[in-house]
Amino acid sequence: MMGTARGVASRTWCRMSAPLPGAGVSLALALAWIVVASAHAGAQGRSLTGAARPGIDVQHYDFRVAFSPRGLDQDVTVTSTSVVARTRRVDTLALDLAAAMHVDEVRVNDVVVAAGRDGASVRIPLPAGERDTLRIAVRAHGRPTDGLIVRRDSAGTWTAFADHFPDRARQWLATVDHPSDKATVEWTVVAPASYRVVANGELQEETPQLVPPGEAPMLLTRWKSVRPLYTAVMVIGVAPFARYELGRTACGLGELPGCVAQSVWISPDVRDAMPGPFARAGEIVELFSRLVAPFPYEKLAHVQSSTRYGGMENASAIFYADQIFRRRSMSEGLIAHETAHQWFGDAVTTREWPHVWLSEGFATYFAALWTEHAHGDSAFVEELRRMRETVVNAKVSLEKPVVDESLSDLRYVLSSNVYQKAGFVLHMLRRQVGDSAFFRGVRGYYLAHRHGNALTADFVREVESASGQRLDWFFDQWMRRPGFADLTVGWRWEKGTKALLLTVAQGGSVPPYRLNLSADITDATGRVRRVWVTVPASRVATIPVPVSLDGAPRSVIFDADASILGRVTVR
Fold first, then answer.
1. What domain range is 530 assigned to?
2. Cys bridge to 449: 103, 330, 454, 558, which one at CB 3.0-4.6 A?
3. If 0-12 CB within 10 Å is exposed, 13-18 middle and 19+ buried, where does residue 15 land?
4. 3-class SS letters over 30-52
């Protein structure tokens, strides 16, 4: 996901800005640090690692939601039904559900039980047994303070949108609200017939409802996803949408037969701006499908919404901020970033929050790969430079590693570390092992963990297998400790030996790095050649360049294509 540059005081997150309107392919994201405790109070102290509920595996959710015709200032009634597999003896199940939602009834296998409240959870007694499957239904009503955003949009119409990342589904749904427990999902929503409902998966039905005479007509809409998701990317959107069809794209490149149906769900008053940058949405899916694996979901909807983020990668139903449409500032870069999440973040989901770079870093780099594909090498290099600039100017770069095992508060789960730094590290990994091994490793990682969960070690193992290289040293220095490289480089040509020698000094407050440095050498005849040297992890090193020159070079340019994460100064 990506955040908007314009923060609002009631919103919580260290977020990133959407690409500037004039930089349609740019993922150079200026950090907007907005850390406000109110919206995510209670996140501190939650377990951010390990199994969400030991012995419990939710297989399926069935959410039934009913809105009043007026929508605003009315209670929402929701029944959350979970199909739960017990893998060992568990006597009580705690489902996450905020206190603002009042529990009306709890059933286990259709039998009413006396459930208790424990802060922001519902404690449900389970019948004796183990290695069995239970059906648990929690009916509740209330006015959610978060998670489901019911409000008037900028056109004055009430709308309702789920907005769950990272663990805000619990604000209105009874769930195991943790990325390690993925499940299929079905949504049944009753809303005014003048509205349309979009959700994960494939549309199953739209059925008019019987209402008393004189009341507004109501429509039941049902969506179902057959792919397991984590709760943060399970969503509904309810609004008087206009739907713009992008057609059946990426034919033969989806997990399901046929083509990938894409559409844009928008307010009717901005329909004239379509398709805009969405004209290339099909090409984006095609590129990522060829680089990684077939598109994983039933369709892909792009939705104008009330999400607090610039874009949110909900599985098969990406939500974008309302104002991005109204300001006509949608960009290819944002679309590519959120689309990449369908593979990385959604289909392969971080098992534990300290490894969220597996979602955001991949989405950042694959959006840059779209830039490389669609706009050429120079645009790609500029993208890398902007990513690098963000990292070297961010305080968090020197304070925290990308994989931050000390993370204890989800308000701080997102930063430039897991976006730009992680994305840039993926680029350096590509340079380290070569294109063929890199993409083989990415594909192997994705296919091994598709529709499941993964940790950093899982990715390392696949890239090592694909490349035949041991890469612990690479991930240790770039992912498991803070910092970035700070190089001062000089060179001299020795007439007697015709050798070109580099002197590389590594400064900064962090240990030195082992890395590969490119040198573009223009010889006395004007010929330009690029050579690579390996810089050892030492403070000062003298390195012979593997080239013989009859005369002193006219010039030596270092790291011309921005392949090193850090500063490179030539003395």
1. 485-570
2. 454
3. buried
4. CEEECCCCHHHCCCCCCCCCCCC
User: Is residue 563 a part of any domain in this protein?
Assistant: yes
153 found inside a domain: no
Which letter, b or e, does each residue of 505-541 get, where b requires 16 or more Cβ atoms within 10 Å of its Cβ? bbeeebebbebebbbbbebeeeeeeeeebebeeeeeb
Q: Are 305 and 319 in contact (CB under 8 A)?
A: yes
φ and ψ at residue 267, rounded to 5 degrees: -65, 140
Contacts of 458 (CB under 8 A, 6+ apart): 445, 448, 449
Q: Which residue has the tokens 């939710």?
A: 58
pLDDT surpasses 90 at 226: yes
Question: Which pLDDT value is given to residue 47?
Answer: 55
* Alpha carbon distance 562, 420 (integer Å): 13
The Cα angle at residue 484 between residues 480 and 487, in degrees rounded to 5: 140
Give the separation between CA 476 and CA 482, rounded to whole angstroms: 10
Domain count, the chain: 1
Give the chain's length.
Answer: 571
pLDDT digits (tens, 9 = 90+) for 483-529: 999 999 999 999 888 899 999 999 988 999 999 999 999 998 999 99
Question: Do 370 and 332 meet the contact criterion of CB atoms below 8 Å apart?
Answer: yes
Q: Which amino acid is at 378?
A: S
Q: Which pLDDT tens digit goes with each residue over 292-329?
A: 999 999 999 999 999 999 999 999 999 999 999 999 99
Q: Name which of 463, 430, 425, 457 is nearest 444 in CA terms.
A: 463
CATH of the domain at 531: 2.60.40.1840
- pLDDT tops 50 at residue 15: no
pLDDT over threshold 60, residue 462: yes
Q: What does residue 367 show for φ and ψ, rounded to 5 degrees?
A: -65, -40
Residue with tokens 């047994």: 129
Model pLDDT for residues 67-116, shown as the tens digit of each residue: 988 777 789 999 999 999 999 999 999 999 999 999 999 999 999 999 99
- With CA atoms as reference, report the closest residue to 46 among 360, 411, 312, 416: 411
* Within-domain flag for 494: yes
Alpha-carbon gap, residue 460 to 454, rounded angstroms: 11
Q: Quick check: 7 pLDDT over 50? A: no
Query: What is the model's pTM?
Result: 0.92
Quote the tokens at residue 16. 């990133």
Continuous H helices in 416-545? 422-433, 435-449, 456-467, 472-479
Please check whether residue 514 lies inside any domain of the structure.
yes
- The shares of helix, strand and coil residues in the chain, as percent rounded to the nearest 5, are 25, 35, 40
With a pLDDT cut of 90, the percent of the chain lying above it is 84
